[in-house]
Amino acid sequence: MTAPATGVAAAVRVERGHFTLDVELDVSAGEVLAVVGPNASGKSTFLHVVAGLVRPSVGTVRVGERVLTRRGQRGAEPDVMVAPEHRGIGLLGQDPLLFPHLSATENVAFGLRSAGLRAGPARERAREWLTKVGLDGVGDRRPSALSGGQQQRVAIARALAAEPAVLLLDEPLAALDATAAPQIRQLLAEQVRGTGTTAVVVSHDVLDAVVLADHVAVLRDGTLVERGRCADVLSAPRTAFTAALVGTNLLAGHRDGTGVRTAVGVLEVAGGRAAADPAGGGAPTGEPDATARLSAPAAPAGRGAPDVPDGGACVVRFRPSAVELFEARPDGPNAFEATVRWLEPATGGVRVRLAGAPELLADLEPAQAQGEWLRPGGRVWARVDPAAVHLAPAA
Known about the structure:
The chain is of the alpha+beta class and 395 residues long. The chain has helices at 43-51, 104-114, 119-132, 148-161, 180-195, 206-212, 230-235, 240-246; strands at 8-16, 19-27, 32-36, 58-63, 66-71, 80-81, 89-92, 166-170, 198-203, 215-220, 223-229, 249-256, 259-262, 265-268, 313-318, 323-326, 335-346, 349-355, 360-364, 379-384, 390-393.
């Protein structure tokens, strides 16, 4: 039977050469926190500090009332550094790290036996967990006879079977192919929520936050830049960095009659008024951003629009698919010139990253991205659909 869920709290500082991680995060009992950000933002370092694999320069880690790490606190009690194997914390990473000489059943049973369970009951429980993760009938196979996705399922079963007080997931889907990743992601979500396990999942993919987590924390260069409920942060990011991370364009601006003055010029707004921002409880007059679908059901179009008076400071959001790119200046409103920084994959097409402060994103069909004029460093013209421009008062 799963033990009652326990919360985790960490306030740590890690100094490594020119990089410093300085983060304070907590997760309530039974909830899942996603920590997202680009490579080298400190995500895995934070997880390894909680797991006891990295010793912080200063800070504390607690699970419930139990202090697992205490370092460098002047005038406080003596330092504490509980060994990883004594923390009651499970860690699941990209690599399943299965014992090659043991069967799938024995791999899952290993953690249970290490916790003191006798061999027979441990194997019985291991078989139950293999069934839960969809591997009924393969318990006698060794890892070499299993596919990569099956090995990862064994690792998930092993991690959850041990019933850790806290489960840490470090990019657990990064090594999987496009077919296996969605299955494993959904499996993790079902098992973590079904057992009420307190968990922290580290990822560079915001989809992991959408599917797995209750709350999301965004790291950049070792610093926490945003934290909140997934629906709030992903549908209405407060910083340009987070907006780019979740695939939404964000600009600062001032309302100017029927439009808004921004760094790229005056952008017209459909209908001559501010479209309702998803975080403001209303519905935009145009098609909503993809991330807005995470929010609560919207009010009828045009109602509940935030009050952004003429001259008032605001933030402007529009989806990348609302940006068209041209080799020459197009007709119509909301056109501006920009420089191509690079092209990258996007769901169903190609994403063009436009240089600037902040960067802007445009999503194109593959056939639209083949022109020589779209090379990195090239100058292009962009146009934003006025119906897709959503405003909200500046914080």
